[in-house]
Amino acid sequence: MTFTFQAEDFKRDSSKKLSHHHLFPLAMEEDMKTVDTKKAGRILDQEKENTRSICLLEQKRKVVSSNIDVPPARKSSEELDMDKVTAAMVLTSLSTSPLVRSPPVRPNEGLSGSWKEAGCVPSSTSSSGYWSWSAPSDQSNPSTPSPPLSADSFKPFRSPAQPDDGIDEAEAGNLLFDEPIPRKRKNSMKVMFKCLWKNCGKVLSTAAGIQKHIRTIHLGRVGDSDYSDGEEDFYYTEIKLNTDSVAEGLSSLAPVSPSQSLASPPTFPIPDSSRTETPYARTDTKLMTPLSRSAPTTLYLVHTDHAYQATPPVTIPGSAKFTPNGSSFSISWQSPPVTFTGIPVSPTHHHHPAGPGEQRQHAHTVLSSPPRGAVSLRKPRGEGKKCRKVYGMENRDMWCTACRWKKACQRFVD
DNA sequence: GATGCCGGGGT
DNA sequence: ACCCCGGCATC
Q1: Which residue intervals define the domain C2H2-type in the entry (predicted)?
Q2: Which of A406, A272, A371, A380 is nearest to A331 (CA)?
Q3: What would the pLDDT profile of A25-65 be if each residue is shown by its tens digit?
Q4: What are the residue boundaries of the structural domains of chain A, listed by start?
């Protein structure tokens, strides 16, 4: 059993975790072979995997039956049952503490892995990667918000009806955030669930609640039946309020107590994820990606330090005025992959934050037919102080990324 | 001269 | 994609 798990596990991770080789000499051999055969072609590989799976199952059977008297014929179904039970346990533990890296997950993986390879369910994680939160997909379709779900935030509230997914998510979490994460998750984490449906910012404290909300309100599932095809999962996200890192990052910024957002569900509860320079807080920011919000009348400067590389920032003008200075300025979070098409901004005043290409071109189309032939349609330099001016050359590491790269400043947009 | 940032190159 | 920098426009 144990051996099987290790070998299987190793096979799955072989492409990534080369550093673990010294732990499993046997597996290393296997792995090397796998690497070699990769060049020869996937078919061979597949064949090999299957054979190995069979061999391992055989081996497993021997080991188990030497200890326990089990009829071999029933073996597979029993294992499946145990699979489910273990998966349920794992999911339960996951739902209570999001980052429990519970060892039972791995053996489970091993087992399900062999079943999968035998042709049951293809594992999306091992082959094609993981969920991406910058999913550029259907922005055009208003009925599918397609929220940016990181594997990390996705994991804890997967419905137990899908044990396989739960396992995969767990693995994805491990793969994605292997190194620095453990200190992020502490018991100071508050978890809420926010509906991502357009113009609905409902926040509930339980996954079941939000699922029900989405089912009934948005998906129009009539009758309060508990039937769920898991679709709701895509329409809500988990809001983690890490009092530690947030407070850490916020120490010099606007004082917004996390509990405040807990106390006021109907309002928009996000603005505590402010700009920080700490990677941990930045990760948190990703977790708290709101997809849509009921249009606020105040100014929201939506950007991140890395907005230059990431999705373009969205600026919603309004009555309130933020005056950026060194210590406190815009509320920022990872801007969701939604294009705010209906914002009534007079084109002449659309001196927007220059984002990457797409946004720039958009500006050109909005601006009334720019003079032809002018090759360098350079936008006039903004008068606001930029990172360079504010922080100075000596504090270059405090600049926003764009400034550091001599790009249009993303922190102090004009 | 200082600053902002586009365009382009390196990895 | 990320990062850096030459060089130009603007202040």
Answers
A1: 193-223
A2: A272
A3: 333 333 333 333 333 333 333 333 333 333 333 333 333 33
A4: 2-128, 300-369+381-414
